[in-house]
Amino acid sequence: MYRLVCVECGESFPPDEILYNCTRCGHLLAVEYDLATLEIDRAAWDRRPLSVWRYREILPVSIPPVSLQEGGTPLYHLTRIGEDIGLPHLYAKHEGMNPTGSFKDRGMTVGVSMAMQLKKTSVACASTGNTSASLAAYAAKAGIPAVVLLPAGKVALGKVAQALMHGAKVISIRGNFDRALEMVHDLCLSHGLYLLNSVNPFRLEGQKTIGLEALDQLGGIPDRMVLPVGNAGNISAVYKGFTELVSLGLMDRIPMMTGIQASGSSPVVRAVHEHLPEVIPERDPETVATAIRIGAPVNAEKALTAIRRTNGTAASVTDQEILAMQRDLARKEGIGVEPASAASVAGVKKLLDMGVIDRDERIVCVVTGHLLKDPETVIRQCDPPLEIDADLPSLLSALQRS
Ligand SMILES: *Cc1c(COP(=O)(O)O)cnc(C)c1O
Ligand SMILES: [Zn+2]
Questions:
Q1: How far, in Å, from the CA of 402 to the mean position of ligand 1?
Q2: Which residue CA neighbors atom 8 of ligand 1 most closely?
Q3: Which residue of 107, 113, 114, 198 is surrounded by the most CB atoms within 10 Å?
């Protein structure tokens, strides 16, 4: 059993109320379990497959979940990049290996399951791309219609393709993500669709399992968790999962939560560095990493708590640094990610150069989405294939040239 609790004023609401914000003060809601009475059998967790649903005792879903077998993603030791930059204990959790190719699936398996549990008959979201791809797939699995709003011209090709193919009603608005979110929020409140952006606290419940899996895979607690930050839901979610393990007595310290943004879209970084009480939105965010091209992060207040309470930090990286690390991950480690994902590892390199990170830290970077999500950005960075006549001499001379 759980309640919805306001992160600001502490007001609590019953579990079956459809709410996206506190009705008293307007701040964010979080799912709160009665952890004191919860008995977790750690060995039972270990016997289940590594997945979101391994941790079902600390998830809000009580019906059979709408699942596409999300989670259980690989944790890779980045040996070559680690050696290059001088970090022997650097890991990447490859969330691109989820069913639709991003960590959003962890949030959507829980979010769409909750839509069914709460007897909602249609779902909606605004998206920089991956949320829409994921929602479209999970709504298809649940057999209910989905509406998605995208910022026109700013969504990577693979993500639009997924949303369309899975049968969502896809609408492009002439405006940015932040505006799309306002619009879909209004639509859901006025017309009863169920809103599945990360302002929906159930999304974060699924996403918190990234951190829980990382602990289980590492067989211990990392010193630092590094995530790319857009709406700041994911970093908040991972932190929340850790605090619950601490309350359950299953963990005795929390990694330093570290958020990375693109320099053209970095309101959270600014708030951290300038010790601001809250994030000041940016009007015109811009970055090649479209998944984190967000000026007004919805979950900023939760993320600032996560970063500050764990003695973590935030940093920004340029588009050039992001793309260079996308190539390094692909070529030195065999890990194909979209640009936003590479921001986490690029951020580690930068923080190390700045002397913020110690060389002996054990660090888990979350790489959030798959390379094939954004093929156009990939193609722009690579030389095109050589085209030759279909004979061996031409092949040999082509190989000599390249
Ligand atoms: C959604 C997304 C992010 C940002 O996550 P937030 O929870 O919005 O901070 C980063 N990378 C990818 C690939 C994403 O899809
Ligand atoms: Zn409140």
A1: 37
A2: 231
A3: 107
Count CB-CB contacts under 10 A for residue 220.
Answer: 10
pLDDT, one tens digit per residue, over 19-40 is 999 999 999 999 999 999 998 9
Give the ranges where 223-266 is alpha helix by DSSP (H): 233-247
In a domain, 348, yes or no: yes
The CA 137 to ligand 2 mean position distance, Å, reads 33
Burial of 269 (0-12, 13-18, 19+ CB in 10 A): buried
pLDDT, tens digit, 9 for 90 and up, residues 135-192: 999 999 999 999 999 999 999 999 999 999 999 999 999 999 999 999 999 999 999 9
For ligand 2, a single-atom ion, which residues have Cβ within 5 Å? 6, 8-9, 11, 22, 24-25, 27
Contact 68, 52 (CB under 8 A): no
Q: Is residue 34 part of a domain?
A: no
Rounded to the nearest angstrom, the distance between the alpha carbon of 5 and the centre of ligand 2 is: 8
Q: What CATH number is attached to the domain comprising 287?
A: 3.40.50.1100
User: What per-residue confidence (pLDDT) applies to 401?
Assistant: 84
Is residue 163 domain-resident? Answer: no
Number of domains within the chain: 1
Put simply, whether the predicted model's pTM sits higher than 0.85 gets the answer yes
